[in-house]
Specification:
With 211 residues, the chain is mostly beta strands. The chain has one helix at residues 4-23; strands at 26-28, 34-38, 47-48, 51-52, 55-56, 63-66, 71-80, 88-97, 123-126, 135-144, 165-174, 179-180, 185-186, 201-209. The protein is built from one helix and 14 strands.
Amino acid sequence: MKSPALSLALAASASLVGATAHAVDLQLDPALLESIYFTPSVNSGNVHVPVTNHTAYSQAAPYALPCDVTEFDQQIQIDYVTAGPEVYPQLDISFFLYGDESQPIHSNGLNNYAAPYGGFSRTVSGLQGLQDHHTQIDGFLPVSSISQYGGFLFQPSDLPANVPVRMRMRVVAFSCSTPDPTTGGYSAACQLPDPTPWDNVFNVWIQRTCP
């Protein structure tokens, strides 16, 4: 038979484990996704992206980017919906041909800057700390041939002409802001579990549309 003290200790331990898992419940707000694109002559302005069941547009009807697009930006809102300690969200973005995760788009960045390092198939952004029951709006730039950081970004030419591509955006919580120089995000040792990872992801279908 367990002693009362041991039973209380086990109950307290179980409570803490449950609280830890619950405390890092981050969500991407589906009502507040916006995008903007640029060409040499066009600024689209902020465009609200309609998200249903964590997906915007479709393979059959993707969001049309101009053939000469030079930059494609996103704006998201992250909600920290439970009580818990400060966390550090990390956003990663990947692109998949025809939505097939066995066909990720690989990039060497602007002017093949990342080629000596093997290139990349996702971009990672470590974001500022977020307190419980708070939200924050973050902008990020996954595609650009005009940014000073273009060597670390997907290029418009990485998006094949007239091919539907699924852009996956995913946010993950970390307990520290220790950087990981190999990814540009936070140290994997600090990654926290999330009880509802399905609401941390948006999928946006896009297509670079050319004559």
